[in-house]
Amino acid sequence: MFARGAHEMLELHGGKCVECGTISTPPSIHPTCIACGSPKLEPVGLARAGTVYTYVVNQTMPAPFVAPLPLAVIDLDDGARVMLQVIGDGDDIEIGRRVELVLRRYAFERGVPVYGFKARALKAEEGSA
Amino acid sequence: MSWNKVAVVGAGLIKMGELFDQSYEQMAAGAFDAAVASVDKGFDRTQVEAAFVATQRGTLWGQEGIGGNTVPTAIGLAGIPCTRIENACPSGSDAVRVGAMAVASGVHDVVLVIGVEKMRDKSSEEGLLSRAAAGHPIFTRGETAPVLFAPFATRHMHEYGTTREMLAAVAVKNHYNGARDPYAHFRNEVTIDDVLASPPVCHPLHLLDCCPQTDGAAAVLLVNPARAREFTDKPVYVAGFGVATDHPYLHEKDSFTEIKATRLAAQRAYAMAGVSPSDIDCAEVHDCFTITEILDIEDLGFVEKGGGGRATADGETALDGRIPVNTSGGLLAKGHPIGATGVAQITECWWQLRGEAGERQVDMRNGYALQHNAGGRGSGVSVVNILTNRN
C-alpha cells in the first residue's frame, strides 16, 4: 500500500522518542517507541547518509523485480536504522561501507510511478562522514 | 519439577513432499489417521472433544476460507469445537501450546492438534511475488523469505568468522538424517561441495542452504494426564513452553547475530520445565535456512554465542553428537509445510522419547526433548515446547 506510506518516505521521516531519544521509522507503523514503548514521539527528518550494518543480495526475484537486488540494513548518521534497496548489482556493498540515500523509483502501482529512497554505495574517497 | 499438566498419547504425520494428488482435506485426514493409529491401547476418534488447526498460508496461497470447520468435516467429526491458529512459521508449535492450555485448564480432556499446509499448489513465482511486494512499500520491497535470514548470515560471518562451509555442514547433517526418515521430503544425502556449488539464492545463501516448499500434515493427541493410562503405558508429557515476540521489521533489530524472540521463548520454556539446556537430549529446531539452525542452537543455549557454526562442523549436533539436532532431517530435508512443521517436530520428539525413532534414535538419558520454531516478519515470533517421558 504505497498511498499510506508515500509522504513519510518521500520526506524520510522518523519519530524521535522524547523519553529515550531512539528514532523509530517510519512513523505510520510506529505509534510508540521501538526501544521503550513510549507514545511520546516527535517527527524528525532522517540523515541522508550512513553505514552498512549488514546486507544481502537477492538473486531470486520474480518480475517485475530485477535480480540481483541488493538490500542493506543501514545505520544512518543520526542513529536511526533503515533497510533499503541498494542501487547496482551488489558488487560494491560490504559491511562498514558508507552510503548516501538518493530518491529513486521503486515501482509502478496502478500505472503511477512510486518513488522512495534507495542507498548508493560511496567510493572510499567519498566515504568520510 | 516440570509442568506435566498435559500428556501426549498419539502422534503421526503423512509423507512430506509435493502432494499434488492430495487435497488439503485428504492430507488432514491422513495425519489424523496416523495419530489415531499410534495410540497404544486404541483410540475411538469420537473421543476428540476439541481441535486446534494450524494453517499459515491460508488465503495467500490458495487455501481460501480455511476456518475452524474444514478439518472436522474432513476427519468425520463435524460439530466439534475447532479453531484455526495462524502465528507465522511457529503456527504448529503454537497450536500445540494452545491445545495444551485447553487441556490444562480442565475445559477439555482430549484435544486434537493438527497442522496442515499446501505449499505447492501455487507456482514458486506467484509465491515469491506475493512475498516480495508485501509489507511496507519501501522497507520490505524485495523481501522474499531468504531476505529475512540472509542478513543474519552476513553479520554472523563478519563477527564470528562463520564460513559458508560451516553453514553447509548444517545441510549435510540434516540431509543425512532426512535420508533415514521415511516421512522426509528429501531422502538424499548431500556433501559440503554440493551445498557450496548449488545456485545462489540470496547472498550469502545458496539453494541447499534453503528448505524446500513442501506439502504436508501432522497431528498429535493431547489428554489430561490423569487419563493418559487409558491410552498408553508410555505417555509423553508437555514439560513446559515459551513464546516470545520481537519487532517485525529487520531495520528494528538490535542484533543480527541472534533471534531475540527465540532467546526469550527458550528462557520461559526452560523456567516452566525446570530444566536447563544441558538437560535436553535432542532438539527439533527451525532450520528454514542453514544460518537459522546456527542461530537457534546458540539462542537455545546449546552452544556459546558465535560458536554454532564451529560446533556443527565438529559434529556436536549430529545423531551421535553431544546434542543431536533435527534428527528428523529438519526443515531442510524433511520439509517445511508451515502449519504442519511444528506438529511434525513434536511427533519426532515423541518418537525419540518413546524409543521409537528407528535408526535415528538417540540416547535419551535425561528424558527431555525440545521443539522450536521461529518466523514471521523479522523472525519476530518464536515458540519453544519441551517434552519429557519423566513424571
Task: Describe what this molecule looks like in 3D.
The complex is a heterodimer of chains A (129) and B (391). Chain A has 129 residues and is mainly beta. Chain A is built from 1 helix and 8 strands; from the N terminus they run αββββββββ. Chain A has a 5-stranded antiparallel β-sheet. Chain A has a 3-stranded antiparallel β-sheet with strand order 2-1-3. Chain A is globular. Chain A starts with a helix and ends in an 8-residue tail after the last strand. The relative contact order of chain A is 0.18. With 391 residues, chain B is an alpha/beta fold. Chain B has 12 helices and 11 strands. In chain B, β5 and β6 (205-206) form a beta hairpin. In chain B, α3 crosses α12 (338-354) and α6 crosses α9 (290-299). The longest helix of chain B is centred in the last third of the chain and has 17 residues, at 338-354. The A-B interface holds A 1-2, 5-6, 9, 24-26, 29, 34, 53-62, 65, 68-69, 71, 73, 81-85, 90, 95, 106-107, 114, 116-117 and B 125-126, 128-129, 132-133, 136-144, 146-147, 150-152, 154-155, 158, 200-204, 247, 249-253, 256. β4 of chain A pairs antiparallel with β5 (200-203) of chain B, so a sheet runs across the interface.
Low-confidence runs of chain B (pLDDT<50, min 5 residues)?
none
Give the class of chain B from helix and strand content and strand pairing.
Answer: alpha/beta
* Lateral strand order in the biggest sheet of chain B: 3-2-4-7-1-8-11-10-9
What is the C-alpha radius of gyration of chain B, as a whole number of Å?
Answer: 19 Å
**Strands across the major sheet of chain A, in which order?**
6-5-4-7-8
Q: What gross morphology of chain B would you assign?
A: globular
Q: Approximately how much helix is present in the residues of chain A?
A: under 10%
Coarse morphology of chain A: globular
User: Which sheet architecture does the biggest sheet of chain B show?
Assistant: 9 strands, mixed
What is the percentage of strand-forming residues of chain A?
35-45%
Cα end-to-end separation of chain B: 9 Å
Order of helices and strands of chain A: HEEEEEEEE
- Largest binding interface between chains: A-B, 37 and 35 residues
